[in-house]
Amino acid sequence: MRKPVIGVVGTSNDSSPAVDVALKLGKLIALEGWIVLSGGRDAGVMRAVSRGAKEVPGSLTIGILPSQSSDVAPDIDVAIVTDLHNARNNVITLSSDVVIACGIEGPGTTSEIALALKNNKRVIVIGATEAARTFFEEVAGGKLIHVKTPEEAIQALLAVFTGGRRK
Amino acid sequence: MRKPVIGVVGTSNDSSPAVDVALKLGKLIALEGWIVLSGGRDAGVMRAVSRGAKEVPGSLTIGILPSQSSDVAPDIDVAIVTDLHNARNNVITLSSDVVIACGIEGPGTTSEIALALKNNKRVIVIGATEAARTFFEEVAGGKLIHVKTPEEAIQALLAVFTGGRRK
Amino acid sequence: MRKPVIGVVGTSNDSSPAVDVALKLGKLIALEGWIVLSGGRDAGVMRAVSRGAKEVPGSLTIGILPSQSSDVAPDIDVAIVTDLHNARNNVITLSSDVVIACGIEGPGTTSEIALALKNNKRVIVIGATEAARTFFEEVAGGKLIHVKTPEEAIQALLAVFTGGRRK
Amino acid sequence: MRKPVIGVVGTSNDSSPAVDVALKLGKLIALEGWIVLSGGRDAGVMRAVSRGAKEVPGSLTIGILPSQSSDVAPDIDVAIVTDLHNARNNVITLSSDVVIACGIEGPGTTSEIALALKNNKRVIVIGATEAARTFFEEVAGGKLIHVKTPEEAIQALLAVFTGGRRK
């Protein structure tokens, strides 16, 4: 029985408030004994979520890198190098049991949420704007789970797994 | 000097009004002497845009197929078979000089627009809803070009090319 | 009914004798009215095969490029940009009805032949060495078709198509 | 500092002698504290190498799966689902510090060795036939390391890492 893999996506901008959210979220996911998967680069949400996870002894962090020349975040345990560039976003979603977005600040995260939905994955968004909620309600009819904090995201994950919807 | 390649994306739903838009758009693109590139499957916008293009003698239609087992639309001249499934959406955007979306009805088209923006491609959307406009303004700050009809899309394409922004 | 697509692979080394073979082969394929597909870069067999094809009026050349930053050969009509790097070799084989290798000089061409066989494509090799013949006989039991010249490759292609084995 | 990742490739044929080689090899790699990466499917060398590794407490096994519908080997700890089909072979090689082939029995393994060489990875082959040795000498001039047993493969790995050639 494999451990659940939680994909965490979000901005590569180091000065976004999403970075602190990701740091906290990574730790909380690891405390549940789940694996943290991200885009693996040494920037923004990718770096923070793996750093948070590695505060927990025995945690495991996987990075799905776009390119052979990408800088890998220091707290990534296993670097999967795809050389697929932006198409690696699809591999992130396919390899995750559930995808969590720490906000939606740019087209990269937007593509990851859209691909996750297209691949029939559950998606949790922390702190979506009103515009994002309205848009995704229109294109994906209620499939996104909206929460405000990392703690609420963990509760939502537990509900997904309890509901037998892990896939 | 290669001919411009116009990527056209949109729903695979055959009963969407976007199908008629795509049929008209395909013909107009071909009349300009440009190449029509799409997802290539025998459904919805993909089938319609290549059908419209092939009403014009000498036109060329390229389909970027997700899988070896995909049904190819009858008016596709060259089928590029990727076996990349949803990651083929990235190849569609990278191979296009400009991407035109015939509406945004689901997560597939959303992913294509987002990947196009991530790849620094110009994107024209025909008939975006208010919610879509607001959301993409938020994540991509004015990079989408909004129009209402296929004819206006052609005018926008001509403006892009004249502006020297073909890339 | 789509025209047959012939994938041509081989070295990117401009000083290989395979370059002259590819130039001749491209012209002969185009004279049959078939589409020439290659790796699309401005080097070696890729450049030569599209140049040969474009000596024939009405011919069509497709290039499957590894990267957004690849230089495209001047005689490519349609550049499919994959950003998949070496994984684009798989797309070359999947998009071809038959694959022809102009010799086997390095690991790139080896990977293309192997992927073509794995994808159940017919593969014709022009001028394989004895070592290559023996090895591929061992791993693919008689599936390669060996010929010595571009003219013989065309005869082999015609036999494949007549035999109803186009797929 | 990430642990070395050893990619192990080979036939999916359950009755090949390579299966016993892979079982032993997986255990030996895990005993060194290295991560075992494979194609992840529930067949042949992929299943055996992860089974061997999991005999060692604290070991870690990664599977790079071709498709969402692939059966995952029972001893895989983390399943990376690519939906790239045969193009996932490139991801296997890129994500490995060194690739070890348990024999070369078909075009799949051939493609993995060729892609690994193309990506400038060190490749160790256990029990290559004379034909395979001669062919790869021709296309890759001495870049393959040939050994006869799993124990010798570990010695070769240690020599690679000591030689500072890990990349």
Describe the structure in your own words.
The structure is a homotetramer of 167-residue chains. In chain A, helix 4 links the parallel strand 5 and strand 6. Helix content of chain A is 40%, strand content 19%. The mean pLDDT of chain A is 96. Chain A has six helices and seven strands. With 167 residues, chain A is of the alpha/beta class. The first copy, chain A, is globular and about 35 Å long. The interface between A and B is medium-sized, with 31 and 30 residues.
Question: Can you give me a brief rundown of this structure?
Answer:
Four copies of one chain form a homotetramer. Helices cover 40% and strands 19% of the residues of chain A.
User: Which chains have the largest interface?
Assistant: A-B, 31 and 30 residues
User: Approximately how much beta-strand content do the residues of chain A carry?
Assistant: 15-25%
Q: Give the strand line-up of the largest sheet of chain A.
A: 4-3-2-1-5-6-7
Cα-atom Rg of chain A, whole angstroms?
14 Å
* Helix-strand category of chain A: alpha/beta
Largest pleated sheet of chain A? 7 strands, parallel
The amount of helix of chain A comes to 40-55%
The oligomeric state of the chains shown is: homotetramer
For the record, give the distance between the C-alpha atoms at the N and C termini of chain A, rounded to a whole number.
Answer: 13 Å
- Number of DSSP-assigned strands of chain A: 7
How many helical stretches of chain A?
A: 6
- Spans where pLDDT lies below 50 across 5 or more residues of chain A: none
Task: Output mean pLDDT of chain A.
Answer: 96
